[in-house]
Specification:
Length: 558
C-alpha cells in the first residue's frame, strides 16, 4: 500500500523530461491534428498514399476471400460448406476474447487485429491450400507413392508453408505499425488473431469434408465423423494454430523491445520464433503417424505444457507493462502533468475499470441534476468543507458550469437546465425531480442525454488510460534505446492528449486509487486538483472550464 506520496525512482532520469517550461508554451508547439502521426505528407506518388494502401489491402484480402470461398465450397459442396461454416465459427469468439483480454493494458487498434484475422482467414489460407496441394501432387508424381506424399506434405511442407504465410501478417504490422507494436504482448495478440483466422477457414474445410463423409456412409449424431472432428479441432485443440504462430509473435515482440542498434538481434529473434513455430507444427501434424496413441502423447506431454508456458509468459508480460506504468509515470507526476494518485490507479486493472465506471455514473448523475456523486462527499456540489465541486458553479446543483453553452439549454427548455431551481422541487435522498412533471418524451430524452454524457466521460477516461500507458511505454523504450528519433514529438503529443482529458479523468482515477486502497490519504481528500485548468470542448459537456479565474499553467519543477 502506498501512502500517496510520489517517490522519485531516480534522482536524475536517464531520459530527458519536459521541464522548466510553462504548460501553455509546450502545448502551443503541438502540431495540428492532421499532422499528429509525425510523418511527412508524401505527395506525388500514388502508392505512398495512405488511402491507396488501404484500398489495395482491402482489395487483395477481398479477392483472396472470394478465391478461398470458391475452393472450399468446391471441395466440400454447398451443404458441407454451410455446416462447416456454422461449426467453425463457434470457437472464434472464445479465441478473440482470450487474446483481447491479454491486450487490456495497452489495447491494439481494432484495425490491426481485424487485418490480422482477415489475413489468416483469406490470404494465408489461400496460399496454404494452393502450395500444399501443389507440393503434395509434385511429391506423389515424383515418388509414385501417394501415401508417402501425404505424410511428407503434412509433416514437412504444411508447417513451413502455413507458418510462413501466417508470419507475413505479423511482419507487415511490425514494419508498418511500429508505434503500435511495442513488445511480447503485441506480438502474441497479433499472431493469435492471425492464427485464429487461419484455423477458422481450415476448420470449415475439415468439418465440411467430414460432413460429406457422413453423408456417404450414413452416420450421424455423436458417433459421426463430423462430431469427432469438431471435438478434436474445436474442443480439445482450439489453441493449436494460435499456439504455433504465437511463437513467431514472441520473436517479433522481443525484436520490437530491443534497441534499434542491435540489428542482428532484431533480425534473428523473429527467425528463431518462426523456426520454433514450424517445428512445433510439424510435431503436432506428425503425431498421428507414430501410432494410435501418438496424438495423445504429444498432446499431453508437449502441447499442454507449452500452452501453459506461453500463457504464463503473456500474463507476465502484461503485469510487466503495469509495473512500467508505476515506474515511469511518477516522473510526470513530479513535473506537474499528472496528479500523485494517477500512477497508482493506472498501474491497476481493477482501479482502471472502477475509474471508468465512476466517471460514467458521476457525469450521468450530473447531467440529470442529481446531487449524488460516486466520488464521495468531497466531490459533492455543496460540500461544507471544500465548497462547490468540479463543474458546479456557486449556488447551482450538479450540471454545466456558468458560461457553458449547456448551462441554460436542456431537455426541459430554457432556464430549466439540470442544477437550476426553476420548475424543480428537491426530494431528500433522490436529488432533484421536476415538480410539475415533464412529459414522458421529455424525460426519456433527458435520460438518453444523461446516458450519453456518462458514456462520453467513460470514453474520455479510457482514452486517458490508453494514452498514459503509451506514454510510459514510450519512455521505457527511450531508456532502452528503442524509441526512435521522434521521441520528443511523440511525448509531446501524448501529453497534449492527456491534458485535454485531465479534468474528466483525474478525479475518477484519484477516486479509484482511494477506493482500491492504493492511495491512503492522511486527511480528508481535497478536490481532485486545484484550479484553474485549460478548457476544451471535445467531449460534449465535460470539457468546460468550471473556474472563472484565467488559465495559469502550473510551473515546471526546477
Amino acid at each position: 500500500m502506498s501512502d500517496g506520496s510520489v517517490q522519485q525512482r531516480q534522482s536524475q532520469p536517464a531520459v530527458p523530461l519536459l521541464e522548466e517550461q510553462r504548460v501553455g508554451e509546450i502545448l502551443a508547439a503541438v502540431p495540428e491534428r492532421r499532422h499528429w502521426r509525425y510523418r511527412p505528407r508524401r505527395v506525388g506518388m500514388v502508392w505512398r498514399s495512405r488511402t491507396f494502401r488501404i484500398v489495395a489491402v482491402f482489395t487483395v484480402l477481398a479477392l483472396c476471400g472470394l478465391a478461398i470461398l470458391a475452393l472450399v465450397r468446391d471441395q466440400t459442396g454447398t451443404e458441407g460448406f454451410l455446416v462447416g461454416l456454422g461449426l467453425a465459427v463457434l470457437p472464434v469468439p472464445l479465441l478473440m476474447a482470450a487474446f483481447r483480454w491479454l491486450d487490456r493494458v495497452e489495447p491494439a487498434p481494432w484495425r490491426n487485429l481485424l487485418f490480422a484475422f482477415a489475413w489468416g482467414a483469406f490470404a494465408a489460407a489461400l496460399v496454404a491450400i494452393l502450395a500444399n496441394s501443389f507440393a503434395t501432387h509434385w511429391i506423389a508424381t515424383a515418388t509414385a507413392d501417394p501415401s508417402h506424399a501425404d505424410t511428407l506434405g503434412a509433416t514437412v511442407i504444411a508447417p513451413v508453408v502455413e507458418e510462413s504465410a501466417k508470419a507475413a501478417a505479423v511482419l507487415l504490422i511490425f514494419l508498418f505499425r511500429k508505434r503500435e507494436f511495442n513488445g511480447i504482448v503485441d506480438g502474441v495478440v497479433i499472431a493469435g488473431f492471425t492464427a485464429s483466422g487461419f484455423a477458422f477457414t481450415e476448420n470449415i474445410l475439415y468439418l465440411g469434408n467430414a460432413f460429406g463423409e457422413d453423408q456417404q456412409i450414413g452416420t450421424s449424431g455423436v458417433v459421426s465423423v463430423t462430431a469427432a472432428t469438431f471435438f478434436v479441432r474445436a474442443v480439445m485443440s482450439p489453441f493449436a494454430h494460435p499456439l504455433f504462430t504465437v511463437l513467431t509473435g514472441i520473436g517479433f515482440g522481443l525484436a520490437a523491445a530491443s534497441a534499434r542498434r542491435r540489428r542482428i538481434r532484431r533480425l534473428a529473434l523473429p527467425l528463431l520464433g518462426l523456426v520454433l513455430a514450424m517445428g512445433m507444427h510439424a510435431l503436432w501434424n506428425g503425431s498421428a503417424t507414430v501410432g494410435p496413441y501418438g496424438f495423445y502423447a504429444v498432446y499431453g506431454v508437449f502441447m499442454v505444457p507449452v500452452f501453459g508456458l506461453v500463457t504464463w509468459l503473456a500474463i507476465w508480460s502484461r503485469q510487466r507493462a503495469l509495473r512500467t506504468l508505476s515506474a515511469e509515470l511518477p516522473a510526470y507526476a513530479a513535473a506537474g502533468w499528472l496528479t500523485p494518485a494517477e500512477p497508482l490507479a493506472l498501474s491497476s486493472m481493477r482501479a482502471r475499470g472502477m475509474a471508468r465506471d465512476a466517471a460514467r455514473q458521476r457525469h450521468s448523475l450530473a447531467a440529470r441534476g442529481s446531487w449524488m456523486s460516486p466520488y464521495g462527499p468531497a466531490y459533492a456540489p455543496t460540500s461544507p468543507t471544500y465548497g462547490p465541486g468540479p463543474g458546479y458553479g456557486p449556488g447551482h446543483g450538479p450540471g454545466p458550469g456558468p458560461g457553458h453553452p449547456q448551462a441554460h439549454t436542456s431537455a426541459y427548455g430554457p432556464g430549466h437546465a439540470p442544477g437550476h431551481g426553476q420548475g424543480y422541487a428537491p426530494r431528500p435522498g433522490t436529488g432533484r425531480v421536476p415538480a410539475s412533471g415533464p412529459s414522458a418524451q421529455v424525460r426519456a430524452r433527458a435520460k438518453a442525454q444523461a446516458k450519453a454524457h456518462g458514456k462520453a466521460a467513460a470514453r474520455a477516461v479510457a482514452e486517458y488510460e490508453s494514452f498514459a500507458t503509451s506514454l510510459a511505454s514510450l519512455r521505457r523504450q527511450a531508456r532502452r534505446g528503442a524509441a526512435g528519433a521522434d521521441f520528443a514529438e511523440r511525448e509531446l503529443e501524448l501529453l497534449h492528449h492527456l491534458w485535454q482529458r485531465r479534468d474528466v479523468a483525474a478525479p475518477a482515477l484519484t477516486y479509484a486509487a482511494q477506493a482500491t486502497g492504493r492511495l491512503r490519504p492522511h486527511r480528508p481528500p481535497p478536490g481532485p486538483y486545484a484550479p484553474p485548468f485549460p478548457q476544451h470542448t471535445q467531449y460534449g459537456g465535460h470539457g468546460y472550464n468550471p473556474y472563472p479565474a484565467p488559465h495559469q499553467p502550473p510551473q515546471r519543477n526546477q
